[in-house]
């Protein structure tokens, strides 16, 4: 199988339903979702399967959902049904709630890190926020954007934050609070996000 087509040699790429410049905000958005997926794969390799069996199941499901999300962002075709289902958002919310219950209570911002897998998950979190910003830019450009994709990216970054804390907790490493942070969390949740 040949993977190169030569059709992009002049700065254009194919999307579902057309062609656009390779630096189009739509390409940036779904390309960033692909980047998230890579960091998720890296984090999975860093997690012990006995201690994190539930998390590894989550992350594999999330990798599939990220492909769905990227495909939805890459589509300008009204004929193609969206793949990312609304229940993906509620599944993330359920897992976030469970992680908040498991990890120690939090009042202040924390520094990313603690353990190697938690650091990888924090990277996935920040890249997810970038993907969300790009999806919003795409929406503002009067482009069709799945509202589920926007919700999903928003919850996914919260999921990664909660997961990074649980990873550190299960590995016996305390999160390091940002020393100049005011108290911004109540019941483990950020005020106003």
Describe the structure.
Pathway: Cofactor biosynthesis; adenosylcobalamin biosynthesis; adenosylcobalamin from cob(II)yrinate a,c-diamide: step 2/7. One of its GO terms (biological process) is cobalamin biosynthetic process. Belongs to the Cob(I)alamin adenosyltransferase family. Pfam families: Cob_adeno_trans. Homotrimer. With 193 residues, the protein is mainly alpha-helical. The chain has one domain (24-75, 83-190): Hypothetical Protein Ta1238, Chain: A (Up-down Bundle). It contains five helices and four strands. Strands 1-2 form a two-stranded antiparallel ribbon. The chain has a two-stranded antiparallel sheet with strand order 3-4. A hairpin with a 2-residue loop joins strand 3 (185-186) and strand 4. Helix 1 packs antiparallel against helix 2, helix 1 runs antiparallel to helix 4 (116-140) and helix 4 (116-140) runs antiparallel to helix 5. The longest helix is centred in the middle third of the chain and has 25 residues, at 116-140. It is elongated. The model has no long low-confidence stretch (mean pLDDT 89).
Layout of strands and helices, then pairs:
Layout lengths: L11 E4 L2 E4 L3 H22 L6 H21 L13 H16 L13 H25 L6 H24 L14 E2 L2 E2 L3
Antiparallel strand pairs: 1-2, 3-4
Series of secondary-structure elements, N-terminal to C-terminal:
EEHHHHHEE
CATH class descriptor name: Mainly Alpha
Task: List low-confidence stretches.
Answer: none
Instruction: Please report the distance between the alpha carbons of the first and last residues.
Output: 46 Å
* Main pleated sheet: 2 strands, antiparallel
Q: Which topology does CATH recognise?
A: Hypothetical Protein Ta1238, Chain: A
Helix content: 55-70%
Question: What is the structural class?
Answer: mainly alpha
Radius of gyration: 18 Å
> What portion of the residues fall into strands of 2 or more residues?
5-15%
Question: How many independent structural domains?
Answer: 1
Tally of extended strands?
A: 4
Assign the CATH superfamily.
Cobalamin adenosyltransferase-like
What is the mean pLDDT? 89
């Amino acid at each position: 199988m040949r993977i190169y087509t030569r059709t992009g040699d002049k700065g254009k790429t194919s999307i579902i339903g057309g062609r656009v410049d390779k630096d189009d905000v739509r390409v940036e958005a779904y390309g960033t979702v692909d980047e998230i997926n890579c960091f998720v794969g890296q984090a999975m390799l860093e997690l012990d399967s006995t201690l994190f069996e539930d998390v590894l199941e989550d992350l594999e499901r999330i990798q599939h959902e990220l492909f769905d999300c990227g495909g939805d962002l890459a589509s300008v075709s009204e004929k193609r049904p969206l793949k990312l289902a609304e229940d993906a958002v509620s599944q993330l919310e359920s897992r976030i709630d469970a992680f908040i219950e498991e990890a120690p209570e939090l009042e202040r911002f924390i520094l990313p890190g603690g353990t190697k897998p938690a650091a990888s998950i924090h990277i996935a979190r920040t890249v997810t926020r970038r993907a969300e910003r790009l999806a919003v830019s795409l929406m503002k450009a009067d482009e069709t954007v799945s509202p589920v994709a926007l919700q999903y990216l928003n919850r996914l970054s919260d999921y990664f934050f909660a997961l990074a804390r649980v990873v550190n907790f299960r590995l016996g490493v305390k999160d390091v609070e940002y020393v100049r942070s005011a108290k911004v969390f109540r019941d483990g949740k950020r005020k106003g996000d």
